[in-house]
Design brief:
- It is a single chain.
- This protein has about 100 residues and is α+β, with helices and mostly antiparallel strands.
- Helices cover about 30% and strands about 10% of the residues.
- A 3-stranded mixed beta sheet has the order 1-2-3.
- The longest helix has 11 residues, at about 30-40.
- It starts with 13 loop residues before the first helix and ends with a helix.
Length: about 100
């Protein structure tokens, strides 16, 4: 079953992507180079990263308060949750990206 912005529950799981994807996230419009990089980064981690935002169509981007020229609308950006990560872990993650 799909919703307006992506796949729900079962397909958006670490077992399928190697990283956790929130139900409203649409990864189908994200460039493969971006998801490949995410997979590479995930492979270095012991716990799944949580993707909180992927491709956004212009209407959805506006509704969530995204930037007018957001890279999400071009499929060139994803957001991940850093909840539970230390500042050093976030810094390391950014250096890998």
């Amino acid at each position: 079953m799909a919703n307006e912005y992506g796949l729900l529950g079962v397909l958006n799981s670490p077992q399928n992507y190697g990283y956790s994807v929130q139900p409203q996230v649409n990864l189908s419009g994200v460039e493969p180079s971006v998801t490949d990089k995410l997979s590479q980064i995930q492979a270095t981690r012991s716990s799944p990263l949580s993707v909180s935002s992927g491709y956004r169509d212009p209407g959805y981007n506006a509704r969530v308060g995204g930037a007018r020229r957001s890279q999400h609308m071009l499929g060139k950006a994803i957001d991940i949750s850093t909840k539970g990560m230390t500042l050093a872990e976030v810094k390391s993650l950014m250096e890998e990206a």
